[in-house]
Amino acid sequence: MSKKWYAPLVAFVGELTLDRMRCMGGMVTYLIKRISTALALMVAAVQSNAYTAVELDGLAAHGTWLKLGHYKIVTGFFGGGYRSEIQSSDFFLAPTGNIDPKSEVIATISAMSNHEGLSGAGHAQCRFPGRFLWLKRMNPEEVAQWPVANCTDYLNWSHEIGADSISVYFASGYLGNPASFYGHILVKFNSPNSAATGGQLDRAFNFGAILSARDNALVYVAKGIFGGYDAVFSNSAFYVNQYQYGQEELRDLWEYKLTLPREDVLLVLAHLWELSGAKFRYYFFKKNCAYRFAEIVELVVPDKVNVEAKPWAVPASIFHNLAASKYRDIPLVDRVDYYPSRQNILYEKFDSLEAAEKLAVRAVIKSSNPLGVREFGLLSDEQRGRVLSVMVDYEDFLLKKDVDVQSTKSRRVLFMKEQAIRGRQKINLKTADYTSDPPDGSNKPSLFRASFVSSKRTSGSLNLQIRPVYYDLLSSDRSVVPFSQLEMFDLHVRYDPDSGTLLLKKLDLINVINLNLSQTGLPHDGGFAWAFAAGVEKQLGGCESCLTTYVGGGYGKGVQLFNGDMAAWTLLNGRVETNYQGSSALSLGPTVGIVFKVSHGWSFLGEISQRINVERRGQKITQFRVENRFAIAKNFDIRAGLERGEYTEGNLGLSWYW
Amino acid sequence: MKSAFKFCVFVVSVGFAASALAAADAPAGSGPNPYSDCGIGAALFPKTPVGAVISNVIWDVGTTAVTSAVSSPQTCSGKKVAAAEFILRTYAALEEEAVVGRGDHLASALTLMGCGAGDHQKVFDGLQADLGSVMDVKVDAAMNQVEKSSRIYNLLQKNISESSTCSA
Question: If you compute the radius of gyration of chain B from its CA atoms, what whole number of angstroms results?
C-alpha cells in the first residue's frame, strides 16, 4: 500500500486555480476529469494491496456497507443509482461518496490503511470505527496488515459506555404534543452495572429534529412534515430520558432487550459514534425516530425491522417487527420490561391499597391536619407506610398539575419526613405490581376494513376503510392513553352495486378524543374530556356525492365506571363546515357516549349526539351510533353496528390490522 | 498607625473566624460543593424551569451543553460533577427513595460517587436517618431544587465518608 495514497488529490487541489476555469461548463468538465483521475489513482493504490476489482465491487454492493453509508436506491430522469440520506459532506471520504458507494469504499480503505496521522483522532480508523470493524470482519488478514491508529477518544468513550447489550425503548404516545402522538423510540446500551442502577447511568441515543426557537406552530408543523428540519442522533445518560418521559411527560416506557452478540453490539455503537453530528433530513411521517432506529437495528439484524413499504413509520410498527424477528434462529427480543410513568405508579399503588387504606388516603387529603385523622391513626404501621407512600406520589402529581403549589409542597415534605422517621423501624412495604401489555401485544397500527352496509335506501353496499394510524375508542391497544382515540387520514369509500358508483364518504385528516378520566377518584385526578376533528365528509341532507369540509371540537367530562371497564362521557360540541346549498356553516350540540369492555374480546360503544344549526333557526339533527368489536385474532376483528344519520344503516365489517 | 494595625488584626481575626465557621458548617468529608463551587446549579438552572432545560439538553447535544457551561476547578472532579448533575436532574425521585432508604436512583448516585454496591445500604440508612432529622416542613417547602440537591449531596458525602469502603 502506498503511504502517499492522497498524493493524487493533493496534486489535484494544488492545480485547481481560478484562471484555469474560465467558465462554469469548463469548470464542471475539469472537475469531473480531475476527480476521475484522482479516483483512478486511488483505486490503483488500493488494488496494489489485497483488494481486487471484484472484491471492491463486492464490498461496495454489500448490504452492510450500504447501511453504514445510509445509501438508498434512487431513480431519476437519467437512470437509477444510490444516494446517501446523510446530508453532511464530511461524512464521506470520497468527493462523490454520497452518491457512489464504490468510490467511498475505495476512499475508506485507502484512508484506513494510511500511515499518516495515526496518533490523531482525525485518522479514518478513529472517525469511522464502524466501517473499520466491518472491513476487518470482511477481510481480517488484509486489515491486520494496516497500521493501527491511536483512537484514544473513541476508545475512552466506548470503554466508558461498556456496552454489553442493546435495549430498544418505546415511550408511549403523549397527547400534549402532536409530534409525540405516536410515541417515541430510543436505544440504550446496557453496561455491566445496569442491573444495580436500573440502567440509569447507561448511555442512551435519541434521534430528533434540530428545532428553531423562532418557528411558530404552523411553521413547525409545515417544516416537520415537508423536510424543513435537519435531524441528528444525540446521546445522554439514560436517566435524562427516563426522567423526562416518566416524570415530566408522564409517559410509560417499555424496554425490549435484544439478544445480539457483543461483536454486533460494538458495531452498532461504533456506527453511532461515526454518525455524531451527521445530519439527516427530518420528515415527521416517515424519516423519523422510528425509521432511523429501525435502520440502526437492521445494521446487524438480517430480518426486516423497518417499514419501507408504508409511506409512514410509527414506533409501534417497529416493535411489532422486533418482536417477530429472529437472529441466528433465536428470537431477537430477549425480554420486555415495563416502566410506568409517575402517574401510573400512583394509579397502581392506589389500586393495590386495601379498602381501609383507601379511606385513610381520602381522609388525609381532606384534612388540614393530615397525620392526625382518625382513619390514618387506626391503621397498622405497615398500612400507614403504604398510605404515606401513596400520599407522596399524590402530592407530586398535584405539583405536576400546579395545584396549590405552596401548600402541596409543605404536605409533601410532611409525608416524606414521616416516612424517613418511620423508615428506621424497617417497615416491609408491599409493593404494587406494575404490569401492562407491551406495544406489540395488541393489534398493529394500520387498518383496512371492509364492511357490508344495509339500509332502507339500498339493497346493500360495500364500505371500504383505510386508516394508516392509529387507534379508536374500541381498539385493544393498552400501550396508548386509556379511553382515547387517535385517527389520522381515515378514509371511507362506499361502493353501491345498484348504481355501480364508488363514492367518497369521509376523509378524517385527524380525529382525536381524550376522555381524560380519573382513575382513582381522588381530587384533581382526571380533567376535562376533549375532542377535535377535521376533514371532509358527506353532507347531511345533501346528495350522495355532496361533500363538506369541516372542523369541529368538543369539551366536557368523562367518568370511569365498573372498575375501569366502562367509561361514560358528555361533550358540548361546536362545528364549522363549508356552507353548501343553504346549509348551516355553524352548529352546536351535545354528545353523550359510553364505551364498555364487556369481556376480553368484546367491547361496545354507544353514542348519541345532536347538532343544532345556528343559522337555520335552530334546526336540530339527532345522530346515534352503536358499535361492537369482537376480537377474533391479534390483527383481526369483526365490527357490527347501527348508525343513524339521515337514515339508519346497519353494518358488519371485517378489520385487518397491518 | 496604631488604629490601622488594630483594624488589620480585626479583619484577619474575623477572616479566620469566618473560615472556621464555614468549615464547621460543611459536613465531614464533603469537600467542595459542585452546586456552588463548580457552577453546576447555575449551568443547569440559570432562570428556566427544570423541564425546559432538560428538554433542550436532550433535544440538542446530550450533556455537552451542561458540561461545557460548568467551570471546573481542579477540585471539581468529573465524578463529583456527574453525581451532582444526576442528583439535581432526578431530585424528586431520589428524595422519595432517600426517605424510604432504597431505590435505583440512590444506587446510581452512590455508583457515580464511587461507592461500591456492598456499602450502599449502610449509606442509605444513614441518609434516611439524617433526612428524618433535618427535614422541616416550612424550611423545605421554601427551598429550591438546587438547595435541596446540595443538601442531599452533602449528606451522601457525609455518610460515604463514615462508611468503611466507599471512596468519595
Answer: 18
Q: Is the pLDDT of residue B4 over 70?
A: no
Cis omega (within 30 of 0) on the bond before A470? yes
| A565 and A615 fall within a common domain | yes
> How many domains is chain A partitioned into structurally?
4
Query: In this structure, what DSSP letter does residue A316 have?
Result: H
What is the amino acid identity at position B49? P
Smallest Cα–Cα separation from A353: which of A298, A410, A393? A393
Cell of residue A171, nine digits: 415511550
Residue B84 maps to a domain: yes
Tell me the sheet residues that pair with A338.
A254
Instruction: Classify residue B46 as exposed, middle or buried by CB count within 10 Å of its CB (0-12, 13-18, 19+).
Output: exposed
Residues 6+ apart with CB under 8 A from A434: A338, A339, A340, A344, A345, A348
Task: For residues A540 and A602, state if they share a domain.
Answer: yes
Alpha-carbon distance B111 to B107, whole Å? 6
β-sheet bridge partners, residue A626: A606, A642
Q: How far is A458 from chain B (nearest CA, A)?
A: 55
Residues B7, B37 within the same domain: no
Return the number of other C-beta atoms located less than 10 Å from residue A510's C-beta.
16
Q: What is the ipTM of this complex?
A: 0.78
The reply to whether A139 and A27 lie within a common domain is yes
A325 in any annotated domain? no
By DSSP bridging, strand A602-613 and strand A566-577 are: unpaired
Contact residues, A window 180-239, toward B, CB-based 8 Å cutoff: 193, 196-198, 200-201, 206, 208, 210-211, 234-237, 239
Domain range holding A376? 353-423
Domain that holds residue B7: 1-30
- pLDDT digits 0-9 by tens, A586-603: 889 999 999 999 998 899
Count CA within 13 A, CB hemisphere, residue A534.
3
A583 neighbors A597 (Cβ within 8 angstroms) = no
> B53-85: per-residue pLDDT in tens?
333 333 222 333 344 444 444 456 677 788 888
Q: Which three cell numbers stand for residue A7?
A: 498524493
The length of chain B, given as a count of residues: 168
From A345, which residue of chain B is nearest by alpha-carbon distance?
B93
Contacts of B117 in chain A (CB under 8 A): 196
A313: DSSP letter: -
- Is B60 touching A (CB cutoff 8 A)? yes
CA distances from A314 to A254, A289, A321, A476 (A): 15, 9, 11, 17
User: To probe the interface with B, which of A240, A337, A390 has the most B CB atoms within 10 Å?
Assistant: A240
Quick one: which of A289, A336, A341, A334 has its CA closest to A315?
A289
Q: What is the pTM of this model?
A: 0.83
Residues B24, B51 within the same domain: no
Give the three cell numbers for residue A208.
430528533
What distance in Å separates the CA atoms of residue B66 and residue B45, rounded to the nearest whole number? 10
CB burial readout A382-410, b (16+ within 10 A) else e: ebbbbbbbbbbbbbbbbebeeeeeeebbb
The enclosing H or E element of A403 equals none
> How far, CA to CA in Å, does B59 sit from each of A206, A234, A302, B31?
8, 8, 30, 33
Query: In this structure, are B92 and B26 located in the same domain?
Result: no
Which of A108, A120, A260, A138 is CA-nearest to residue A187? Answer: A260
Of the partner residues A248, A406, A421, the one whose CB lies closest to the CB of residue B141: A406
Q: How far is the alpha carbon of A208 from chain B, nearest alpha carbon, in Å?
A: 7
- pLDDT tens-digit map of A369-395: 999 999 999 999 889 999 999 999 999
Domain co-membership, A387 together with A467: no
Q: Element (H or E) spanning B62, and its range?
A: none
Phi-psi category of A428—alpha, beta or left, where left has phi over 0 and alpha has psi -120 to 50?
beta
Are A93 and A193 in a shared domain?
no
Q: Do B59 and A211 make contact, defined as CB atoms within 8 angstroms? A: yes
